[in-house]
Amino acid sequence: MIPAKPTKPAKFDKHNPATESEIVKRLDNSANVLDEIMGTPDKGIPTKILGDAKCIVVIPSMVNIAVGFGGRHGKGVATCRTTDSQGNRWSPPAPITITGGSWGLQLGGQAVDLVMLVMNQKGMDHLLSSKFKIGAEASGAAGPVGRQAAADTDWKMKAEILTYSRARGLFAGIDLNGAAIRQDKDETAVLYGKMLPFQTILSGNASAPSGSKTFLAAVHKYSQVAADKKEGE
After folding, report:
1. Which of 231, 181, 208, 224 is nearest to 93 (CA)?
2. Helix 17-38 × helix 213-232 angle, to 10°
3. In a domain? residue 36
4. N or C: which end of the chain has fewer CB within 10 A?
5. 10 is a domain residue
């Protein structure tokens, strides 16, 4: 009798520790991106803008998957402000993917970190719909950088989503028009043990997984700094 081959866990098997640790690593990397960007206030996201953001999306180490137009694909996490009774203030993280758009050509071949700030309710509604395209359903703009940039309020009036990139240590606003943002259903199932709708997670109606503590702590930290500065003005 031929012995049965051991079955390998499916790529997105929610009980596969390797897959689970991959998502936790992405959450930790997203926290590091925020730490490094906000650690240089003169060159980072203005605290006033961060203080007004409804949601934060971080895509660490976005890379080319194909040569040419629209050959970029990234995975990241999103969190939105909540008013839940536990006073968490930010929702558990929701895994997302970003694909397409011609913006990859602006960056050449290197890996790049992306940060997106959703600035108003309309932008938040697009994010909660779990699939939208920047520049089509949702208006996007390259975000201002540094302390002085916050004085210009045009960004607040016009764009639903402000977008930033960091490549080779250089942090700058970037135009992400044409990029599609979707819920990553496979990774959501791994992170939460089952598939949860985007809206459930980002509205704060889910418990934060243990692997998300570092990321949420970073979001809390910088949003609190921004809130404190706002009160002091």
Report:
1. 208
2. 20
3. yes
4. N
5. no
